[in-house]
């Protein structure tokens, strides 16, 4: 069991960037500094009874806070290493992150920090801390409270009164404060009145806590486009698919197929997929439908995907699949082992 938070064992807050800490500039909102004072200033507006329930925390800024639309796998990796290196000194971690690619980062952190024995909570906001009616203060408060909850032992996302499994979350609204959802997995917890509640049995610690084994791999080789994301559209041609998959720099692909796991029964198109898997590329499919999973081969129209060696992503989010492909391809594993691990739930992602 981890030590509860205290002034000697505080929660670490890392500001990676995003609207939450942004300030106005002539070119529009941009990542601001001085986060420690600004966060404490915002939290000082909470009623005293809620302030009293916040854990002790220290704030650190990552080297260069960014708009998360610019994040790459190299940023996920840096964050994973920073957390892995210092986690032992803290009761838990809060990552303040831009919302645009928050789901990808949360998924990647979950793979990198397997066997986590304390909470790592990713949050952000749709409005800056100082904006009128900002959601930032409430999200930070929620994240801090869950980050000091020793029963929670996984990467989670705290947003708009809800706590989601990090590897199952998606940003589904571009404006509303309630921007995130976890289409195929129930909430891990939520705010109820002034309390934060965790739902027993839904957490990873109760389901599949393996031995702690951080997998902080080197994503450098994949940071520049080694994994691609292709959504099928009616009329997609084999040559279009080949334009992505035949490039030797591409080592993996997320395919967003139709419905329950279907693709056109077009031998030329399926031949492009088979050729890529034959070359050792890792191809995985999920549905374009935001809810539900796929069963490749349930329809004849999906059989070709199975024959071409495309792996089923079941009910995983596209973000969780892409981050998993990056994670597995960065490791010195043979093709068989990569495929086996892709199909194995590592952190409750499938
Ligand atoms: N563009 C911002 C970001 O992802 C959006 C936000 O944080 N609400 O960094």
UniProtKB/TrEMBL annotation:
Substrate binds at residues 68, 99-100. Residues 227-342 form the Asparaginase/glutaminase C-terminal domain. The lineage of its organism: Bacteria, Pseudomonadati, Pseudomonadota, Gammaproteobacteria, Oceanospirillales. InterPro entries: Asp/glu_Ase-like_sf (IPR036152), Asparaginase/glutaminase-like (IPR006034), Asparaginase/glutaminase_AS2 (IPR027475), Asparaginase_C (IPR040919), L-asparaginase_C (IPR027473), L-asparaginase_I (IPR041725), L-asparaginase_N (IPR027474), L-asparaginase_N_sf (IPR037152). The active site is at 19 (o-isoaspartyl threonine intermediate), 99. GO terms for cellular component: cytosol. GO terms for molecular function: asparaginase activity. Residues 11-196 form the L-asparaginase N-terminal domain. This is Asparaginase. SMART domains: Asparaginase.
């Amino acid at each position: 069991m981890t030590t509860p938070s205290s002034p000697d064992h505080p929660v670490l807050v890392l500001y990676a960037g995003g609207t939450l800490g942004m300030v106005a500039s002539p070119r529009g909102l941009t990542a601001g500094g001085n986060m420690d004072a600004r966060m404490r200033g915002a939290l000082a507006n909470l009623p005293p009874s809620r302030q009293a329930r916040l854990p002790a925390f220290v704030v650190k800024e990552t080297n260069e806070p960014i708009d998360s639309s610019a994040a790459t796998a190299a940023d996920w990796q840096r964050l994973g290493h920073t957390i892995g290196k210092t986690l032992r000194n803290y009761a838990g971690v809060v990552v303040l992150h831009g919302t645009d690619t928050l789901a990808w980062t949360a998924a990647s952190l979950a793979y990198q920090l397997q066997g986590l024995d304390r909470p790592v909570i990713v949050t952000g906001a749709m409005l800056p801390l100082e904006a009128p009616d900002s959601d930032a203060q409430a999200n930070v408060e929620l994240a801090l409270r869950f980050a000091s909850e020793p029963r929670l032992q996984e990467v989670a996302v705290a947003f708009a009164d809800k706590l989601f499994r990090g590897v199952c979350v998606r940003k589904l609204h571009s404006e509303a404060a309630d921007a995130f959802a976890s289409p195929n997995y129930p909430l891990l917890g939520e705010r109820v009145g002034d309390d934060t509640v965790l739902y027993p049995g839904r957490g990873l610690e109760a389901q599949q806590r393996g031995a702690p084994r951080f997998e902080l791999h080197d994503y450098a080789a994949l940071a520049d486009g080694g994994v691609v994301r292709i959504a099928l559209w009616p009329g997609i041609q084999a040559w279009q698919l080949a334009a992505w998959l035949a490039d030797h720099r591409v080592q993996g692909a997320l395919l967003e197929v139709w419905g329950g796991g279907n693709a056109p029964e077009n031998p030329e198109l399926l031949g492009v997929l088979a050729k890529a898997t034959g070359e050792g590329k890792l191809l995985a499919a999920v549905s374009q439908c935001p809810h539900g999973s796929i069963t490749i081969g349930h329809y004849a129209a999906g059989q070709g995907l199975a024959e071409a060696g495309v792996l089923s992503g079941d009910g995983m989010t596209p973000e969780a699949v892409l981050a998993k492909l990056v994670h597995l391809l960065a490791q010195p594993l043979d093709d068989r082992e990569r495929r086996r691990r892709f199909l194995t739930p590592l952190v409750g992602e499938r």
